Amino acid sequence: MKRYLLDFEYILFDTNRRDWEAAASSVAREHLFALTALLLMKAASHQDLSLIWRILELWEEIGVIRDRELFLFGMIYIVETQDITLDDLKEFLEEHQIEGEDIMPTLAQRLREEGYKKGIQEGIQKGIQEGIQKGIERGKQEGILLDRQHVLVMLLSMRFQLTEEEKQRIYSVKDGQRLEEALKMIFTAQTKDEILSFLGKE
Hints:
Shape: globular
Number of strands: 0
Distance between the termini: 36 Å
Order of helices and strands: HHHHHHHHHH
Oligomer: single chain
Helix content: 55-70%
Radius of gyration: 19 Å
């Protein structure tokens, strides 16, 4: 029976007692994004936005915010999973003089502009209210699809590193359900090929 049991190594610590001033600690550096995910879940369950500010402060201390692309993906994940607006995030960055507030227009554009623009344009061309509504809904779906692609590329890049060709393969996947399943595989997959092969199945 023993050979069928999972034998994982666990990283256990109490987030309530975490010393947030010690942002440069080895645990925080080594497991930064796992820690971020845990805190975001805690923030959602307790509706405590102050935890999100702690996360951003931690990122600033460790240097993630200076990596524009990594910071952008992280912000997308926060906005999509938490009840927080882009204006709130921008205000926080400005108040704490954290470099990165100039990224907000890019973030907003990636999150919404492409999907909504396509939807609204399609609706206007049809010239009737039904067409406009249908176009907007389609735009929303395309925006959601783009967000899932971005997050999957970010997480795979952090775990395994991706080539530009592999990133484009992910962006070419238009099946939202398959992308969602691939996101669930991130923490159990042993190699990136497992996920890329899953995405490429007919």
